[in-house]
Write a structure and sequence with these properties.
This protein is mostly helical and 266 residues long. The chain is built from nine helices and four strands.
């Protein structure tokens, strides 16, 4: 496998970049379809602007998060900071930045926040699946060594190949890709059922965090907060926060609040 699809002189088309562009285009198309189904007052151009803004903000936030955890290296090698194709994006930093940017853009357009957020999250998790394929082809966000028959030996020039030369490692990118596709299918199915606005948005964070927490123990490049993997810490926080919101809604509904179904989650 190679991180480069083809190269002409100094110009190279990389899987990493192609997957992010694909995620933005497919995501914008999905959001447009869902916005039309929900009859949300937003144009195709505004949806594309939203997608580009969120992807760019997500890349920036993910890179800042990663660089902050590895400042000992990047402080000495600042020219490496913009070189994303060398690996080094953290999804939790990207999610935080993307959500903030998307929220501000939605507010600017005066769109109903929670119905639009529900329309967006299936596209987000599908985009993350595309991104994990880019990680796989790039040989970063890699796993620990394994003797299992599906272990992958990454090329010597990749991040995984340099850390574990000639050694099969867990293809954790593909594990997470499969989970993200599963979550995508669940969200797409549930979007057709009646639910309180904001439910799918909360469920997305719960599902993604559970999946990420499950595979994080096999990652070889985890960030750490003291004795804990940072992804486990943030995943647990997200499950507790958004799972708590869902549980609160379910208890409220069971207590006779069904007539309030049209209102947003608070």
């Amino acid at each position: 496998m190679s991180p480069i699809i083809f190269q002409v002189g100094p110009l190279a088309l990389r899987w990493y970049g192609l997957m992010y562009v694909t995620a933005a285009l497919v995501g914008a198309w999905l959001v447009r379809r869902e916005a039309e189904r929900k009859r949300l007052p937003i144009t195709a151009d505004e949806i594309m602007n939203f997608a580009v803004l969120c992807v760019f903000s997500g890349l920036l936030g993910g890179r800042i998060y990663y660089v902050a955890f590895h400042w000992d290296f990047y402080g000495q090698n600042p020219w490496e900071i913009p070189q994303l194709w060398h690996g080094g994006l953290a999804i939790h930093g990207g999610l935080f930045a993307g959500v903030i940017a998307g929220f501000l853009y939605i507010r600017r357009l005066r769109l109903p926040l929670w119905p639009f957020a529900d329309a967006v999250v299936p596209a987000v998790i599908l985009g993350q699946a595309f991104g994990r394929f880019g990680n796989f082809m790039n040989g970063d966000a890699h796993g620990v060594p394994t003797r299992l028959p599906w272990g992958v030996v990454f090329p010597p020039g990749s991040v995984a190949g340099r850390e574990f030369p000639g050694t099969p490692t867990h293809p954790v990118m593909l594990y997470e890709l499969a989970l993200n596709l599963l979550w995508f299918g669940i969200l797409m199915r549930l979007r057709l059922r009646p639910h309180k606005p904001g439910f799918l948005f909360c469920l997305y964070f719960v599902l993604y965090s559970l999946g990420r927490g499950a595979v994080e123990g096999l990652r070889a490049d985890s960030e750490w907060i003291g004795p804990f993997r940072a992804a486990h810490v943030f995943s647990l926080m997200l499950v507790l926060i958004f799972g708590g919101i869902i549980l609160k809604y379910r208890l409220w509904e069971a207590g006779g609040g069904k007539e309030e179904r049209g209102k947003s989650l608070k």
